[in-house]
Amino acid sequence: MTETLPDLFMPPRLFAPGAAPAGLAAHHRRHGALPADDPESLLRAVTGSGLTGRGGAGFPTWRKLVAVTEAGRRTGRAPVVVANGAEGEPASRKDRTLLRLSPHLVLDGLQLAARTVGAGEAYLAVADGATWLETAVAERTGDQLPVKVVRVPGSFLAGQSSALARLLSGGAALPTHQRPPVRERGTHGAPTLVQNVETLAHLALVARYGADWYRTAGTAAQPGSVLCTVHAGGGEPRVVEAPYGLSLARLLPLEGVRAVLVGGYHGTWVPAREAAQLTLEASYLGAGVVAALPMDRCGPAETARVLRYLALRSAGQCGPCLNGLPRIAAAFRVLAAPGPQGTVRADLARWSGLVEGRGACHHPDGTVRLVRSALTTFADEIDAHARGRCTGTAPTPLLPVPEERN
Ligand SMILES: Cc1cc2nc3c(=O)[nH]c(=O)nc-3n(C[C@H](O)[C@H](O)[C@H](O)COP(=O)(O)O)c2cc1C
Ligand code: SF4
Q1: 226 C-alpha to ligand 2 centroid (Å)
Q2: Each residue's pLDDT tens digit, 241-298
Q3: Which residues form ligand 2's pocket by a CB distance below 6 Å?
Q4: Which of 313 and 257 is assigned the larger pLDDT?
Q5: Which positions carry the signal peptide feature in this UniProt record (predicted)?
Q6: 265 DSSP assignment
Q7: CATH number of 225-294
Q8: Which residue of 155, 170, 241, 244 could cross-link 218, Cys pair, CB 3.0 to 4.6 Å?
Q9: What CATH architecture applies to the domain 24-214?
Q10: Cβ proximity of 197 and 178 under 8 Å
Q11: How far is CA 138 from CA 103, 113, 132, 378, in A?
Q12: What is the pLDDT of residue 361?
């Protein structure tokens, strides 16, 4: 497990100095007790802070809090709140690291979010570490709302919000058609607030220290800090807290790097020279995964492995996933090795257009984003493959793909 924070780009907010797991007493010594603010003050602080979701979409947190509160009033159902620690993205480590080192910040955020929306039930959903988190929950005898820790399958889709609502309602952890969205009708039909665990930890800090303090990190347009899982130079990835607006080149060295994957397996490949111009922004960061592809690796081959995984892990419930993603993954495999390519590039472009926007969830869209960015970023490598050559010399796979470990 990644539990060190070797790069300090700012005074750490989400972790205690030294990055040791913080029990409740240490947490209270550092941050004080849970603030007793009323829901209106909390909502004002969250709105003023500009806090956005850290689960991938970067959605403004205050808007979700308002939507769930209103849905609760309209329907007469007490909302359900869910701290999303599923972390289904195989290349991400930030949520499990946060839950291991600062569980009480997340649990504070969950209580505060529950208070803001007037929730009647609260869950913490995790794939790993449930026993440790149950101990942390048991320490908190003063909480208004009991929190149930639920185990979710360690799969790419289990952390999608409708999959979680379905699991908590007694079904499988697979996405459903989100009409209406879970924030209106989710767990057992109640309005459901699903919030990434890192978002909740930031919310707990905003409630204590205020919106102006929160904005002292980051930029005016994108305030605050963000946890990134950084894959660079081989070995275990590092989890780093960095302010939005930080140059990507400071986060990971770009010498000897061919391209950078930003935003994880639903993200985009960016050539290294373009990555050097980027700063950390929610719009492309997704759940905070950044991975440097060294010059000696084959970008198309790495992409083909990830696409195979994404196609296999789709729920296969909708046409785009059932028919489109396996074809796309198989076609990309042709581009990933030296040899004749026929009409594969044109086929990929056509199939990508056909699956986009047609799934019940955004899985096909995220997959297509990765395909398109690989086709442009690795155009030279794919041309070389067509001529029978590969510029990648290191055979070891770089990006973690779970079933290959089994
Ligand atoms: C295929 C898929 C998988 C997802 N997996 C996760 C996950 O593991 N953890 C997470 O926090 N959000 C995940 N999300 C995003 C959630 O649906 C939801 O938007 C998020 O938890 C909301 O929290 P936030 O507003 O705090 O970001 C996933 C989305 C999709 C489309
Ligand atoms: S689009 Fe794919 S992953 Fe999403 S619900 Fe449909 S089959 Fe499942």
Answers
A1: 28
A2: 999 999 999 999 899 999 999 999 999 999 999 999 999 999 999 999 999 999 999 9
A3: 157, 175, 314-318, 320-321, 359-361, 363-364
A4: 257
A5: none
A6: G
A7: 3.10.20.600
A8: 244
A9: 3-Layer(aba) Sandwich (3.40)
A10: no
A11: 12, 19, 10, 50
A12: 86
